Structure formats: C-alpha cells, structure tokens
C-alpha cells in the first residue's frame, strides 16, 4: 500500500463519516424512487463519487476507460486495487457490511480504518 493509497482510503473514510451521503443498498448510486431527488449511495458509490479517477455522467461512472452503470454493485477490480491498494476481499467485505449486514457508513469507515497500515508506507 502506497502513501497515495492510504490518502485515498483516508478521504473515503472522511466522506463516509461526513454525513453528506445518504446510504442505500445494492447499487453504487440511486435516486430514491419516492421523491426522485434524494441520492443514495452504497459505500463503494461514495468512493466512486469522491475519486478524481471516476467521472459521474448521467447514468454511469467512468472508471479509467470503462463504464459502470449506477445500478451496478461493483466497481472494476483493477480500479479498486489501483486506487485503494486494498485486496479485492476488502471490497467484497465492504459490500456485505453495507448491503447484507446493515452497517452504517460510520461503522464501515471504522472497518476501513482498521485496514490501513499502522506504520509508514512507501
């Protein structure tokens, strides 16, 4: 894990704790069907939203040359690794915490913080 990876994950943790994002499940991003205004994000959708390497357009995110629809569950594996430095198992665990286990964004942020190295990185 590089310093850039740690910084990216720290920004993600900060965004999850910020209260700025309404939590949803099963989609990177969704507009609530009840009022068509409230945007809801899964924890990975928050990462995509704040990433300088992902561009949000109409009904999709662009991840370095590949597109993922808002209503998809995953971000591309190579994008995840290159931006977070975390193992793919961490991505799947975050999905489970968000969608299956009912963790709040703050609880997911605590999990992510525990994944960061305790010592300095290169």
Note poorly predicted spans. none
Tally the structural domains.
1
Cα separation of the termini: 8 Å
Which sequence of SSEs, written as H and E, runs from N to C?
Answer: HEEEHEEEHHH
Give the number of helices: 5
What does this structure look like?
This protein is an alpha+beta fold and 122 residues long. It has one domain (3-114). The chain is 45% helix and 16% strand. The strands form 2 sheets. Strands 1-3-2 form a 3-stranded mixed beta sheet. A 3-stranded antiparallel beta sheet has the order 4-5-6, with helices on one face. Strand 4 (54-57) and strand 5 form a beta hairpin. The radius of gyration is 14 Å and the shape is globular. The model has no long low-confidence stretch (mean pLDDT 83).
Short note summarizing the structure:
With 122 residues, the protein is of the alpha+beta class. The chain is 45% helix and 16% strand.
Characteristic terms for this protein:
single chain; 122 residues; alpha+beta; 3-stranded mixed sheet; 3-stranded antiparallel sheet; globular
Write the layout of secondary structure elements.
Blueprint: H1 3-17, E1 22-23, E2 29-31, E3 39-41, H2 43-50, E4 54-57, E5 60-63, E6 66-69, H3 77-84, H4 88-100, H5 105-115
Parallel strand pairs: 1-3
Antiparallel strand pairs: 2-3, 4-5, 5-6
Helix pairs in contact: 1-2, 1-5, 4-5
């Amino acid at each position: 894990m590089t310093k850039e990876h740690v910084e990216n994950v720290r920004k993600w943790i900060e965004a999850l704790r910020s209260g700025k994002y309404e939590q949803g499940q099963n989609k990177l991003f969704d507009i609530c069907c009840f009022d068509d205004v409230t945007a809801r994000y899964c924890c990975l959708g928050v990462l995509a939203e704040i990433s300088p390497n992902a561009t949000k357009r109409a009904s999709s995110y662009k991840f370095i040359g590949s597109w993922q629809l808002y209503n998809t569950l995953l971000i591309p594996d190579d994008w995840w690794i290159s931006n977070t430095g975390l193992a793919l198992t961490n991505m799947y665990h975050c999905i489970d915490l968000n969608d299956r286990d009912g963790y709040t964004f703050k609880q997911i942020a605590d999990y992510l913080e525990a994944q960061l190295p305790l010592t300095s990185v290169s």
